[in-house]
Design brief:
Layout: E1 2-6, H1 10-20, E2 26-30, H2 42-57, E3 61-70, E4 76-78, H3 81-87, H4 90-95, E5 104-114, E6 121-131, E7 147-149, H5 161-168, H6 171-183
Parallel strand pairs: 1-2, 1-3
Antiparallel strand pairs: 3-4, 3-5, 5-6, 6-7
């Protein structure tokens, strides 16, 4: 089975291929910029983008979006991670929570599947951990250098590639594979 992934992000593509290969699903990349709506829901952003991509490309697609929530900051920045990465250095961003005693945070990963003319379905998973105030590692986005996932000793940005791939191979991909198996009979 083959599915199209509307992304220009090579890391998202690598994670999807790694996660879906054991399910017999091959990922083909489609470079398409999609509008990113302003919403406090990561899933809403992914659903909108997937529907846009399916209609533009006239084929079934998946589209992912990521959010990041800092508990002590009322789950800020949420789906606005892209804007944080463009506006702050890691050091500047860490100042926002430096004096907080609760350093718990989590990534929200939303993966939406949509066929042309239909409504998207979305699969969401969370990866919990804690924040550090000094950036560590250089593999990833700004928040990756400040976030240590539960069960790990290093920030996401400092993890070796295999650990990094395994970390993001979370249940949103298994949910998608099960959906495709049961609703599409393995045909995409």
């Amino acid at each position: 089975m083959k599915i199209h992934f509307a992304t220009s992000n090579t890391k998202k593509l690598a994670v999807a291929r790694n996660a879906l290969k054991p399910h017999g699903i091959e990922i083909e990349q489609v470079n398409l910029e999609t509008p990113e709506i302003q919403s406090t829901s990561t899933a809403a952003v992914a659903r909108y983008s997937a529907k846009y991509a399916a209609e533009e490309l006239k084929m079934p697609v998946i589209k992912g979006d990521v959010g990041f929530a800092i508990e002590a900051l009322n789950n800020f920045p949420g789906p606005l991670v892209k804007f944080i990465n463009e506006s702050f250095s890691a050091e500047q961003f860490a100042r926002l929570y430096r004096d907080e005693t609760n350093r718990r945070a989590y990534f929200i990963d939303a993966l939406a599947y949509c066929e042309p003319g239909k409504e998207p379905v979305c699969f969401v998973s969370e990866t919990h951990g804690r924040l550090v105030t000094e950036p560590q590692g250089d593999n990833g986005i700004l928040v990756d250098s400040l976030f240590i996932p539960d069960g790990h000793q290093k920030t996401v940005a400092a993890l070796p590639r295999e650990e990094w791939l395994a970390l993001w191979n979370n249940n949103r991909f298994q949910q998608l594979a099960e959906y495709l198996r049961t609703h599409k009979g393995g045909e995409v």
